Amino acid sequence: MFLNTKRKVNLNGVILMFSTFFCAVFATIQLNPITTREKNNQVPCNTHGSRAAVINGGDTKLSVEQRFMRPRPPNAYCVRIEACSELLTTSPSVEKYETRPFSVGGFNWTFFLQPSGNKTNLGTWISAYVTIDPSGLVGENREVYADLKFLVYSKAYDQYLTSIDTEMRRFHQFRTTWGTPNFIRHFDFNAKDKEYIFDNDQCVFGVDISVYPYFNKWEVLSIDKTVYGPKSWKLKKFSTLIKDFYMSDEFSIGGKKWALKVYPNGNGTGEGNSLSLYVILSGSQTLKPYEKVYVRAKLRVLDQKQSKHLEKPILTWFNTTGESAGFDQFVSFTDLQNPAKGFIVNDTLSLQVEFEATSSTNYYSISPAQFLSTF
């Protein structure tokens, strides 16, 4: 008992000693949350200079954003500002800094910064916006949908702080400017360890603009619920039929040609035990590329004595001509040959199909404005 207690005491002492040692070692290590690459003196963007412009009123509505660091530079426009602290952080700073126009997605844009664009209880923020040239918002291009990202380069990390506007923005004649009032705080922008201002007072801002083009091809799927009379087909001398299957004459329903197909001796799982019955989309016609035809119908074997017909529903899509839909085991031979059922009278079998709904598809190449005018 005494030896066990002694071992426990010694073990606790060893643990305490090693814990003290490792704490002292780790306390001397400086942790960096982001791994950085080797620094160099190369400036990441080299665009033409921008001009200062008088502010005409920017949107101060806060947007939903996500922020992260990324190595990839902006895809739409980039501006390098020399004498950065003079223009952006000196109080009072310039009211607005606007780039020259640039083209993205077939439209002209400008990118502008407001050095003291917004003030909150967290401090003063640099705001970033883009404006679309309203002269391009005419005709079929009366509105433009775009995703926006605003970026500022950090030399310390050799990456871009990226702010994503998580909502797709709709630009039109009455709303030509979107952006973020709270892009980066002066406190963070001036932080020495981030090096947003670097190499003799330079800084780099940029913007991604992803324009979503309008569709110009579309289709219309129409469901035809016209009440069509049932199509009937009589097979006479049924007991003498020797072919594997028989086809009815073609008939037209919903702008398509159809036929009934019957296997007197059964097909598939019905072979040798049941009559098989199908409706077929005739192969004598051609469907449009990728066209599908919707069908809701009823197949029947008629009771010619008491009108207690055997009926089974079909609800399916036809993808190709020559395709059929129906039942391998529509009616068993036992029921088919039972005189009380009335399915065969005077050696005649009477079949029927009744369409309740079909579809048609039309394809168009058309402008969005023309498309909307069709409603």
Automatic annotation (TrEMBL):
Q: Domain of life, per the record?
A: Eukaryota
Q: Quote the InterPro entries the UniProt record gives.
A: MATH/TRAF_dom, TRAF-like
Spans through the membrane: 12-31
Q: Keywords in alphabetical order, please.
A: Membrane, Transmembrane, Transmembrane helix
Concerning CDD domains, the annotation shows: MATH
Q: Which segments constitute the MATH domain? A: 230-336
Spell out the protein name for this chain: MATH domain-containing protein
Organism, per UniProt? Arabidopsis arenosa (Sand rock-cress)
